[in-house]
Give the backbone structure.
Amino acid sequence: MLTAILGALGVITAGYTTVYVNDFRKNRDASKANVFKSGLVIGFITDFLDAIGVGSFATTTAILKFSKKVHVPDKLLPGTLNVAHALPMITQAFLSLNAISVDITTLICMIVSAVVGSWIGAGIISKLPEKKVQLTMGVALAGTAVLLVLGQLGLMPSGGEAMGLTGGKLIVGIVGNFILGALMTAGIGLYAPCMAMIALLGMNPKAAFPIMMGACAFVGPIASTKFVKEGAYEREVSMGITIGGVIGSVLALLFVTNMPVYWLKWLVVLVVVYTSVTMFKAAMAKEVETQTEAKAS
């Protein structure tokens, strides 16, 4: 069954890669070569960190907001994050899914629910006005920061020994991953909240890895295909992040083990909180601008 899952993932990956590369080739802006190069560095750093457990969405958002060389409009951030990191997440899944054995029914159900949620979420997020995107990402980043702090302080549930779910707990897990799949399209990473949910349901924390990596590997290309077709992402920086991210993921998973990330995660918390505040301020400024224009007219 795991072979079938990996085979399906291979087919989806091939289809997504074709759509992504064709769109990039047809619409590439040669004047943004430096943006592409910056993306290579951003992708290498963020997906290297992602593979060792720090995360990529929040860190990428922060880097893009701070960067003076790369400008991504807030409205395009969710699409850019999903498109840019889809193939690196798939790379991580292929390298990790065989390492931990988890109940196959639980794995399939939670992957499918996350995929359905992401497909619905991507269609909504890609059409939202910039202010709502800013508010959504502000809330998402704040939630990510809270989960990171709870984890750092040892206040997250430790989980149990189960490697699968049944009955009501399985239903809760399916609904939860559906919501997390939808939120992923808004720019909130699935890893941290998925790990928290699995622990709350009494599963072994190790079971989170194949579930969250498998879910992200399927969610990424399916949601991102919709963003690509809508043109709701920044092409040059996304392709750069993708290539750099695949390299960073492979190096981290093959050559880096037990890297201390405690203080690095506290730094990420500070950066994520600052970025969340920046998003809220931008949304409020947009509201003031809209009201001023309405009064002028």
User: Anything to note?
Assistant: The chain has eleven helices and no strands. The mean pLDDT is 84. The two ends are 62 Å apart (CA to CA).
